[in-house]
Amino acid sequence: MDTREQFYKKLKKKLKKDTKFPSKYLYKFIVPTDEDKVNQVENLFNHAGAVITKKTSKTGKFTSVSIHVVMKNADAVILKYKQAEKIEGIISL
């Protein structure tokens, strides 16, 4: 099992133990400041009633994207992380 699979397995266990779903969840990502990449992150959560805030770093090289959204279960939370992984240069916090 690779480290990503282990991470998601641990996350799922923790979410099931600590969170009563449906629940509001906070995603935090850092992406290179590139309109296309920021839009890709936003588009992952379109039509989900998400509240999205963005902040550009002091140097302007990176943008922090925070997303508050109601998720129905742990699997849905993990699915969004897996979809986000496909965006080049993204860092999940």
Automatic annotation (TrEMBL):
Superkingdom of the source species: Bacteria
Gene3D superfamilies: 3.30.70.260
SUPFAM superfamilies, sorted: YbeD/HP0495-like (SSF117991)
Pfam family for this entry, one: DUF493
Name recorded for this polypeptide: DUF493 domain-containing protein
Organism for this UniProt entry: Lutibacter oricola
